[in-house]
Amino acid sequence: xxxxxxxxxxxEDRDAVVSILSDSxxxxxxxxSQEDWGRIFCPVPQGRECFVAEADGAVAxxxxxxxxxxxGDYLELLGVAPLARGKGIGAELLSHVxxxxxxxTKNLFACVSDFNGGAREFYKKQGYREIGPMxxxxxxxxxxxLLWKTTGPARxxxx
Length: 159
Prior knowledge:
The protein is an alpha+beta fold. Helices cover 24% and strands 35% of the residues. The mean pLDDT is 90.
């Protein structure tokens, strides 16, 4: 896709990323505020791999990966600016993350809120399986659903 650049997040991307996340769901419904995002991105999350996708020179999406979760890595966050949704930027950023993750491990996990139908469909199209719900995990009367994508068993058969 022309016009999109994916690169590691830099400190100067902080304000754009905080704006994307604080102005959109599911994070508003989950109770995350601009202040929460400001603390998380101070200026970038520590101990994580953070990437942004730019469209027309502006930050349009962000992804955060925590390494070594279960027998793989965990996609902590994938956020796309509302005006950039439906243009393939999220899929492109996720594909970039997957290429890095699957070069070092066979499993990538993520979570999605049960009320976030658009995200659930997005991850399904990208090959993620819903493993199961975690009820009341973040807020009452909702569940976070654990997702999983794999390239094969973490360990091979013993000979």
